[in-house]
């Protein structure tokens, strides 16, 4: 064996140790190797943009949490019962809270997280004022570096929003609750540089207010819904984004019968509202077996040419999709 091959862990190159960290919790690594020698200590001190997961069993006296909390890290709170004080992570750039509770939400304040560029808030047990304040901050430039935001609650528009110029990607999921269509325009006005928007839920369009066309620069819009009147919703949404390049429509699997898309009407809407559309995707939209001529659908709009039948394990329904089936 060559004498140049390291035989001790502490002699491994930094690049190899970084690869090993892909398979280890950073805190386990700290507990196992901190203090081994000066080189390992310097290596740990140099780590940045690492992922740290907080669990219900953690407490503020954990030395590994104290060591990494001042860093620019990606922080995930895996359970709402976590009792760690989030204020100590003031330099966090990415924050993910899967089950936000009142005690966690009240800590998410712009002054405490000035470096935040990614925020994920899962389903909250109930609506509260803290959540409303977070939404107000998100859409009023409270987090000036925030680029990506994923919310599983609908932001209220009962207060005026300011411009949030940094936001580029926004995902809002409200299912099984209703998503108010008129909130959509407020989001576009608040986020002039938004590039990608995904909405997941059933839309409340009973009190739909027809407004003048708003020419937003949004490139990508994705809708996932079992909304029975989806064509009406699509027409309203697309009227605000004439520069759209990509549209993705997704049904909800196992929802039979799913919202029946009238492709003739949809093609007319696309021609009128988004003439520069470059790509159209649809996934798992159920149709009654042997009721649709796929060639007719292809002829309605150039972007429908990629739509295919997908056979479902159901006695009455198949599906239309553009998704390529993995082999």
Automatic annotation (TrEMBL):
Could you tell me the superkingdom of the organism this chain comes from?
Answer: Eukaryota
Q: Which InterPro entries match?
A: LRR_dom_sf
State the protein's name: F-box domain-containing protein
The scientific name of the source species is: Rotaria magnacalcarata
């Amino acid at each position: 064996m060559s004498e140049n091959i390291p035989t001790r862990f502490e002699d491994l190159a930094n690049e190899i140790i970084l690869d090993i960290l892909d398979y280890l919790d950073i805190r386990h690594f700290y507990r196992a190797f901190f203090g081994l020698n000066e080189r390992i200590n310097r290596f740990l001190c140099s780590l940045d943009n690492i992922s740290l997961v907080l669990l219900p069993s953690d407490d503020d006296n954990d030395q590994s949490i104290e060591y990494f909390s001042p860093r620019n890290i990606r922080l995930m709170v895996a359970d709402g019962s976590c009792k760690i004080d989030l204020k100590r992570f003031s330099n966090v750039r990415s924050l993910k809270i899967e089950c936000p509770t009142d005690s966690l939400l009240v800590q998410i304040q712009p002054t405490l997280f000035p470096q935040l560029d990614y925020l994920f808030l899962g389903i909250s047990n109930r609506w509260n004022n803290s959540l409303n304040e977070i939404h107000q901050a998100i859409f009023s430039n409270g987090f000036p570096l925030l680029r990506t935001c994923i919310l599983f609650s609908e932001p209220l528009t009962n207060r005026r929003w300011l411009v949030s110029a940094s936001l580029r990607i926004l995902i809002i999921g409200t299912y099984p609750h209703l998503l108010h269509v008129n909130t959509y325009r407020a989001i576009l006005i608040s986020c002039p540089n938004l590039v990608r928007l995904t909405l997941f839920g059933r839309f409340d369009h009973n009190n739909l207010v027809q407004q003048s066309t708003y020419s937003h620069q949004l490139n990508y819009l994705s809708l996932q819904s079992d909304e029975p009147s989806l064509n009406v919703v699509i027409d309203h949404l697309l009227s605000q984004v004439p520069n759209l390049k990509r549209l993705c429509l997704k049904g909800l699997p196992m929802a039979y019968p799913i919202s029946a898309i009238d492709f003739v009407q949809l093609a007319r809407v696309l021609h009128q509202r988004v003439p520069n559309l470059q790509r159209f995707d649809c996934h798992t939209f159920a149709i009654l077996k042997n009721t649709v001529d796929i060639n007719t659908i292809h002829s309605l709009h150039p972007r429908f040419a990629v739509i295919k039948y997908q056979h479902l394990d159901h006695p009455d329904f198949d599906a239309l999709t553009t998704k390529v089936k993995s082999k």
